[in-house]
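Homework help board

Subject: predicted structure for assignment chain

Our instructor gave us this sequence and asked us to write out the predicted structure in token form, then describe one feature. I got the tokens but I'm not sure how to describe them. Can anyone check?
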Amino acid sequence: MNRLWIYYLLGAWLLLGCSTVPITGRQQMTLLPESTMLATSFQQYDQFLQENPVSHNRSQAQRVKRVGTRIQHAVERYFAQRGMSQRLANYAWEFNLVQSKEINAWCMPGGKVVVYSGILPVTKDETGLAVVMGHEVAHAIARHGNERMSQALLAQQGSIALASAMQNYPQDTQQLWMSVYGMGAQFGLLLPYSRLQEHEADRLGLIFMAMAGYDPRQAPAFWERMAAQKKGTQPPSF
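My token output:
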């Protein structure tokens, strides 16, 4: 009887943890409170910037901020026009260029974006950069991080421990967090994002960059340049 009640409660909990991705309408599992995701995101982001050199190339850094801000404002206008601004409540947008040869970029919950300088020769111009940043902003807007963390914590900690896992196992969850947001190597058996989430970010990213006034028809050329960066069997991180 007790076990049956646990199953009932768990089922109800999972049902309450379902949400809908804007625009695509896909149902997803987001079990972690958004306040927890944002607080952890801001802390991890600040720590990352303390440990990794921000680029001193003023022109490139300004380009990253300019493109990111245009996409941010376009997304905010879209959500405001549809009475959905609450979804972006407590976002603290930030766009930083980090000095690294790595061809990568990522975005944490709350609009915390990092672009690695190594990807700029591939983006070539602002439109190419908008492809990258639109894709990363889409991950945040779609709450893919919450979805992936929920899946990963369920798989690793078990459903009963999910609520307290981030507090009781800070080292494990920090590694998991870094993996989910592309800040580290693959963790355990779970890849950072699923192919479904990547396709969704591609679709939303094209919409967001178009809203910001960039030409989404230039995206295939960027991805062709990305494919050309492939070395052996290992593609670039992004």
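Reply (TA_rk): Your tokens look well-formed. For the description, you could write something like this. Residues 34-222 form one domain. That's the kind of observation they're looking for.
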